[in-house]
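#help-structures
NK: newbie question, is this the right format to request a structure? protein is R-spondin-3
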Amino acid sequence: VHPNVSQGCQGGCATCSDYNGCLSCKPRLFFVLERIGMKQIGVCLSSCPSGYYGTRYPDINKCAKCKADCDTCFTRNFCTKCKSGFYLYSGKCLEKCPDGLEANNHTMECTSIVHCEASEWSPWSPCTKKGKTCGFKRGNEVRVREIVQHPSARGNPCPATSESRKCIVQRKRCQKEGKGKKNREEKRKKSSKEESKETRQESKGRAARRQNREQRENNNKTQPKKRKAPNKGESLAPVGAAH
């Protein structure tokens, strides 16, 4: 230690010197040596810089250097990130991944190989030819499936997602679109006419029944009431005669 030791230090130092920088740190801070040219200067930090890991002791907390292939580490024997050209696997930095694993160049880690997975086949489609389901005897039918898991770089590739096969159907004529539409329109008009005719006939019938009912009521009002015939043994008295 340089004889010029000071107690009034800055930047988290507990003791320091003009030549060596920090000689000891305040509680919970880590002591680390930084190289400046040919000289090393002690500094006190709240956490260790990249390439170092922290160790705590009763008298001092220090930052120790990671292995040469580690960019960051938890301890000297457990890396958390590797330097360029190395792949991380179980805390170690490897140039080549073990068997059964593959190198992920995005995360720079050794990961498990993922194979492609496809869903079950769908049912066969209707038998068609040139997009039609009629007017032919031999056609094609297809079925499809979906990819549910895409493979990794070294995984098994995906299989075909569609299949086609020949099919035979009972030949039937295709109904012309224009003719079929015309027939449907004629049927609709005919149905409308029949409904209108029935409605008119019902209206005429109701009108005729109402007219007959009114005529009977008028006839009953205009005709004189018939006198009741006398019983046997009774004599008819002239109208207006006193009893």
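mod (FA): yep, format's fine, and the tokens are attached above. Helices lie at 177-222.
NK: thank you!
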